[in-house]
Amino acid sequence: MVKATHLLLRIADSSGMTAADAAREVGIPLTTAYHLLNTLLAEGMLTRDSARRYGLGPKIASLSVAYARSGPSEQLLNAVRNLAEATGETAYLSGWRNGQVVALAIIEGSSAVRVGRIHAELRGFEHARASGKLMLAHLDDSALSSYLDTHELEALTPTTITDKDTLRAQLADIRRVGHSFDEAEFIEGVGCVAAPILEGDTCYGCLTISAPLDRFRKGRRVLTEAVEAAAQRESRR
Description:
Elements (H helix, E strand, L loop, with lengths): L1 H11 L6 H8 L3 H13 L3 E3 L5 E3 L1 H12 L4 H14 L2 E8 L2 E8 L22 H8 L3 H10 L13 H14 L2 E4 L6 E10 L2 E11 H6 L1 H17 L1
Antiparallel strand pairs: 1-2, 3-4, 3-7, 5-6, 6-7
Helix pairs in contact: 1-2, 2-3, 5-10, 6-8
């Protein structure tokens, strides 16, 4: 089961793989790869083209729909809760849902001044949000190009990035350093930092801290270290 899961994840991250490629990526014998791939193929989890390259199958769509309907696990909710308690700031968990990066859980910290209207608007506008940019940074080139071709980079504040080349350059930096910032790019007066929750090279969600901008800038290093440590703990799980 573990090896089959690893095969699915590697194929999901690719534009299609032969059995030999898949075996090499996962580190298993070719005969084992053939057996697992053909089992997944028979179950509709994979497809195979004329070049004998395996891709994701129609049953994956059913899983995706079911996952979209489900809420975050108690483990992830605890991670958000612990992050809010440790920093005193608002913390949230985000992931892709129906083509948008959506806040799946939000927990306010104990600080007296809280981020107000951000709660109702944590959906879409990925180019302007720390969580959105973080998730975009972990897309492959094809998926990122598709996103940029179909989304206008709307200026929500004077500091929102609206140039696609500038955004691409920032996304490359985010992927390299492992976290992303939003300093009044989504909502004026609000700063955020986000870090990825990873399964191998796949980013399936992220944790974010938001705070009033002045307080965010003063505590940037501590908040960044806190959200990175929390996301790394969840990645190891």
